[in-house]
Amino acid sequence: xxxxxxxxxxxxxxxxxxxxxxxxxxxxxxxxxxxxxxxxxxxxxxxxxxxxxxxxxxxxxxxxxxxxxxxxxxxxxxxxxxxxxxxxxxxxxxxxxxxxxxxxxxxxxxxxxxxxxxxxxxxxxxxxxxxxxxxxxxxxxxxxxxxxxxxxxxxxxxxxxxxxxxxxxxxxxxxxxxxxxxxxxxxxxxxxxxxxxxxxxxxxxxxxxxxxxxxxxxxxxxxxxxxxxxxxxxxxxxxxxxxxxxxxxxxxxxxxxxxxxxxxxxxxxxxxxxxxxxxxxxxxxxxxxxxxxxxxxxxxxxxxxxxxxxxxxxxxxxxxxxxxxxxxxxxxxxxxxxxxxxxxxxxxxxxxxxxxxxxxxxxxxxxxxxxxxxxxxxxxxxxxxxxxxxxxxxxxxxxxxxxxxxxxxxxxxxxxxxxxxxxxxx
Length: 426
Ligand SMILES: *Cc1c(COP(=O)(O)O)cnc(C)c1O
Known about the structure:
Elements: H1 5-11, H2 38-45, H3 60-73, E1 77-81, H4 84-92, E2 101-105, H5 110-117, E3 126-130, H6 135-141, E4 146-152, E5 154-155, E6 160-161, H7 164-173, E7 178-181, H8 186-189, E8 199-203, E9 217-221, H9 234-237, H10 248-252, H11 256-269, H12 275-285, H13 288-307, E10 312-316, H14 326-332, E11 340-345, H15 348-358, E12 363-364, E13 374-376, H16 388-393, E14 400-404, H17 410-424
Parallel strand pairs: 2-3, 2-4, 4-7, 7-8, 12-13
Antiparallel strand pairs: 1-9, 5-6, 8-9, 10-11, 11-14, 13-14
Pyridoxal-5'-phosphate (PLP) is lined by residues 83-85, 109, 111-112, 152, 156, 181, 183-184, 203, 205-206, 215, 217, 368.
């Protein structure tokens, strides 16, 4: 029998501890694991047997979390790492190389835009930014050196919803994997693999942990991509010198990307998630559906109230009928459009600064996906490094604040916004 989402978020990946019977997943606070004997050690190092060697690569607490997230996303396997940004590098690393590029959406988390437009150049990689509502433009941007297509499901910060099925079809036609950042939606609201995604990445820092305690990331592999269909992905299809010529895809099949992520990615890049963080995230995921349902319920109420406020120019929440992306909600994220949206104020930049300074219940922080309601003026903070054109394209124009709606009482969230908007428009 197959369990439902609410059952899996509590149980997937977790069994009573074989040594003690402990019901909750123990925090295996250990660096290394004792080998049974010399042959066992050799087999582990040759990837002939799966087991624990050293916690930079694998750890039982982290492994439970990997299995849980992979299960909730409907993937074949997952690799946890130290942050959402680490997950993006871990996802691209086996695919890319000097001179190669990734085609990415203009609508991304501000830090991802910086990572893709600036930092990856140091590896000789590059990114081509395209409006993902323009499918022809995506196809036109793909060239012989493209190795992946990257977007967010519900895009940060504007409440834009990507037509994942359509984008996946473009990537598929070009023989390329589609990587979807599912941070804002979580697998409760959207399951990108069902819409054709090859890999799903998360900042677990946000809704998955859900309470602002952890920095973490994960790469989930659908197991559906044929890495050997072309010669474009030699890290996965060709002999690996560091493992005596082993071919990951041939040897591990649908788990090739996951094994590569551990045996090469974590081993050599070292962006490892620690077991304590994995424990917090496992606990957070136990209540994921309950929290997301409340985030959505509150966001719908608050966004509708804000849309009717005289100081407000616009609210970009796909849950509102006025949103150009409202008709994608039912297909892409049927349980709701998430807890994140932006609000444009008629009073411009200065009104946004006053609003942020006048709120009491909201926290002014560079974070999202917390149980608490959060706000940030992106143009003066997270999107500060971007040009005004990039800011506007990313939904972070100077008169826009980004709001992450918490799970408090909706009436209290609205009352706080009401008193602060009165000051901002005075
Ligand atoms: C926060 C975030 C990231 C980066 O994650 P970190 O855990 O902060 O490294 C990437 N993508 C999205 C959509 C995010 O919200």
